[in-house]
Amino acid sequence: MDLGRSRSGGISPRPKPTPPKRTTTLLQDYENHRLAPKPPVTVQAVQPLSPSKATPRLARVKSLSSPQKEGNASFDEEMVINEITFQNISREEAEEKLRPHPIGTYLLRTGGKKKKCTYALSLRTSSPKGFDHYRIETDGTGDSYFIEPEFKFPDLKSLIHRYQEEKQPVLAAEILYPLLTPKNFQRQFSSTLFSDDDFTLSEKIGQGEYGHVYSSTCSNPRLLHKYSALKEIKLPLRHSKTGKIVPVRLQEFSEIRLLPHLHNEKAARHNILQHLGIQYNPAQYIRIVIELMPGGSLLDALKTIGKSRIKTLDLQRYARQICSALLYLKHFRILHRDIAARNVLLDVSLNNAKLGDFGLAVTIAEMEGKESTAAREIETVLKKKVAVKWTAPESLEKRVYSFSSEMWSFGILLWEMWSYGRVPYRKIYVENVLEQIHRGVRCELPVSTDPACILPAHVHELLQRNSLWSLDPSARPTIETVDKIFKRY
Fold first, then answer.
1. What average pLDDT values come out for the chain (489 residues) when binned by 10 residues?
2. I want to staple 405 with a disulfide (CB 3.0 to 4.6 A). Which of 68, 285, 392, 438 is the partner?
């Protein structure tokens, strides 16, 4: 028997195994392996979470500096950029940042060295120390993340959302308010997260569905806009039926999600109201910082100043400016879904009109992805009542929105302008509007005895059943066609 020797020089008691006889060459083995069919990739369905009786991974961690098991994923910088709460800070730094904020405020962080990075959820709780930290690990490939090994998620966003939706939370507190940094907000929304000290509130200039609108003075000399308007959303938001607090997810707010398209030079040239950024204070408010338009809404101007100051020439100029805004939105495939005189704002000279209030806006891509998580989130928070008398019939019946449905609403806006702020279908109850539209009823066209305020013939032609108010969306003129019509005058 052939005995081998150990590394220490002693006799090994085990014989060397005899290698099996080869029937193929190395090259043939390689080719067989390369051409062999790959096993199908199976995706584990997400199961409902439930409190775990004995799950060591859920235990609060004392430190994230200890090395991970071999094979764990390394620091994923691309993922970090897309996670708005992520900070590359220590446990102690996380606690210091969370300390002034209410229970439910959280952030995601990392610790350890770059090659062996550990993720964690740091959460403000009612525990004696005031904080709890949960280790988030990855599988060997980095394709899934988990706090509990039996519940794995493709990314950190999915993990956070799933634990937010759990009716019986397994964490020490609900995950409610993300802790933001200006750098991360800029990365995700290409916009500015302002501090509480940057603006001084002046007076209330309006009332929204979820809070007031204030005029403000900028306290920061480095900022270009001295005067702005702050549209406030009071926190916490609660479900209307259950009263349960709704977690803050910034992607659900259209005016925040679309910030990259609502604050740039091109948008300004196309009469889009400039959205400058937000202020955010967990559990207190989100304030959307927008361009201040001292002239107020077009609807208020039509009702108060009316024909004494605003003539047909002014109305045609406003129509051209709103056409420009709609062309811009169409270029970026954005549907406003709330076109009305109340959402058109005027400057102090009453010469310039801008389209505002993007609270219901959505992109075509989001509309087409109805089954995706992002699409479901869009309608979750700030779900307004539909403005029935301004909305196209196909949108009321089937919730189908398109650039053609936008043109129906634009027709109602034109009618508002030349009727000087009257309510469309004034004598018809809201619940009967759709039925009457199908019967052929349309807004009665305004008549004026003042030659300077008379409805022009080209607008008269647009406000017909075979034009902007056609039941067939494909028969309505496009915004490009309407824009050309108004540019002639």
1. 45 49 49 50 44 43 41 43 78 95 94 62 94 87 84 89 81 94 93 93 84 89 82 90 90 93 95 96 96 96 96 98 98 97 97 95 86 45 71 94 97 98 95 96 94 96 97 98 95
2. 392
Among candidates 277, 252, 310, 247, which has minimal Cα distance to 105? 247
Question: Closest Cα partner for 137 from 125, 129, 145?
Answer: 145
Contact 419, 446 (CB under 8 A): yes
Cβ–Cβ < 8 Å for 229, 290: yes
Pair 101, 179: CB distance under 8 Å: yes
Q: From residue 411, give the alpha-carbon distance in Å to each of 356, 389, 467.
A: 17, 11, 9
Task: Give 413's Cβ-side CA count (13 Å radius).
Answer: 28
Please give the domain boundaries of the chain with CATH numbers for all domains: 56-177 (3.30.505.10), 180-292 (3.30.200.20), 293-489 (1.10.510.10)
Q: CA 23 → CA 20, 26, 54, 154, 252, distances in Å? A: 9, 10, 51, 43, 63
**Residue 231 annotated as part of some ligand binding site:** yes
Can you tell me the distance from the alpha carbon of 134 to that of 156, in angstroms, rounded to the nearest whole number?
A: 13
Whether 194 contacts 278, CB under 8 Å: yes
Query: Of 263, 369, 354, 365, which Cα lies nearest the Cα of 317?
Result: 354
For residue 236, whether the previous peptide bond is cis, meaning omega lies within 30 degrees of 0, is yes
CA dist 134 and 102 (Å) reads 18
User: For residue 355, which of 261, 422, 214 has the smallest C-alpha distance?
Assistant: 261
